[in-house]
# Entry
Amino acid sequence: DAEITQSPRHKITETGRQVTLACHQTWNHNNMFWYRQDLGHGLRLIHYSYGVQDTNKGEVSDGYSVSRSNTEDLPLTLESAASSQTSVYFCASSEAGVPTRNPSEAFFGQGTRLTVV
Amino acid sequence: GENVEQHPSTLSVQEGDSAVIKCTYSDSASNYFPWYKQELGKRPQLIIDIRSNVGEKKDQRIAVTLNKTAKHFSLHITETQPEDSAVYFCAVPKTLNSGYSTLTFGKGTMLLVSP
# Structure
């Protein structure tokens, strides 16, 4: 069965370190997204990609970067981890929303709980 | 950008009661309105969605109603059961200049169903 998986599931890191969270999907979806989930804020979009070599900033992109070298993977990098980046991170994918205004169901990974100390 | 307001933030009901969660949005061109359920420690999963050409959609005990004029849509759960306890998120698409869209989520409603 197709799926979307994240690793690691839990991570503790120190302030200032670079951290990369992995996301791998076998749906063959062109669209991939990274969200962070914090109490009182719901799910906020960090970065997204609509295909290989395409990356875009979301509403809370400062301090994060992504790269898309193939269809299956969208790793999220925290350049220099800060305590404010302690959160639960969700990766998601969906079918291409083409033509315009034809969005579809987003499938989420299991999440990664990141603690920055 | 798209603004999504979700209410209430918490909702406690007795088993068997009905629960209603409402979301309002700002972009009148929005045409897709999904609801996600997230159980404790799990990932969000789509439970029902509606497109703007219909006003109501039902799937067993859950239903979604849409009022495009007032720009709000609601999730209705009837005959609630303890396993309905979860956080529920509404979402609205935000269309980008590229023609693609992302989903903007509400802040979530924690539903607690007491036996």
The longest strand of chain A covers residues 42-51.
